Amino acid sequence: MNLLIQLQKELATLSKSEARIAEAILAQPEAATNYTTAQLARLAEVSDPMISRFCKSIGCSSFPDFKVKLAKSLASESSFISKAVSPGDTARDLIEKRVSANQLALAFIREELDPELIEQCIAILKASKRIEIFGMGGAAAIAKDAQHKLFRLGIPCVAHEDHLMQRMSAAGADKDSVILMFSFTGRTKAMVEVAQIAAAKGAKLIAITSPDSPLAAEVDLAIPSGNELEDTTIYVPMTVRIVVLTIIDILATGLALALGENMDDRLREIKHSLDDTKTP
C-alpha cells in the first residue's frame, strides 16, 4: 500500500505519540524524506526511540527504510495529503491543498479498489432488470449522477433521495432488482432499514460506503467509499465525493462494455439526440 495512504487510514487508530509522528509526516511529506530521527522526534514531541518503534509498527524495518518507502510513495503515485485549510490561507494555498486532496482520492482508488469486487458488481448490474439508486443528504446528488450515467445503458433505473420513496421502492423490489446505495458513513439508520427491507424481498444490494459500517453488513457487495480520507461528519466532503464519483464512472463504463457492441451505437444515438438543442 502507498505509505501516505496507509498513514492517513491508520491515523485514528494510532496511539497519541504515534499519531503526532504521523501528523508531522503528513503535514510535510516531501520534507520528511530528509528528516533525521532527532528532527522528526522534535517536531512530533516524542523521544528518539519512539520514532524507531513507530516505523516498525507500520511495517518498516527501520527509519531509513521508512524514508525510502515514503520517497517511493511520493514518486510512484504523485500522492499528496489532504491537509485541512487554515485561516489566512491564500488562494494559492487553497488551490494546492484541494487539488492535493483530490489527488489523494485517486491514489486511494488505485491502491484500494478490488478489481474482482468491481467485476462482481458489474455482473450483478448487467443481470438486473431494474436498478434502484438510493442516496440521502450529501449522497443524494451522487445518486442522481449515477442515474444520469446508467439510464443510457438500457436498464431501467431511478434515483430516490426521499426516505419514504426508498422504503416503498425497496418493498416493491424483487430478485431481478438491484439496489445501488450511497452512504459515506454507512451509519444512517434510514439507509440500513431500507437495505433490510430490500434484502427481505430478494433484491441484490450494492453499497458504496464505509466497509465496516452497519450498512455494509446488510448488503451483498460493499465498495469502500474512502470515508477514512476525510471527516464526513463535519461537512459535505469533496475528497470522498471524488472517490465515489470515480467508482460510479468505473461501474458505468464496465457495464457499458459488458452489455456488448450495440451499446456504442445506443450511446451515440442518445448523444446526437441533443444536437438540435445547441446553439451554433
UniProtKB/TrEMBL annotation:
Coiled coil: none annotated. CDD domains: SIS_RpiR. It comes from the Bacteria. GO terms for biological process: carbohydrate derivative metabolic process. Residues 1-77 form the HTH rpiR-type domain. This is RpiR family carbohydrate utilization transcriptional regulator. Transmembrane segments: none annotated. The lineage of its organism: Bacteria, Pseudomonadati, Pseudomonadota, Gammaproteobacteria, Cellvibrionales.
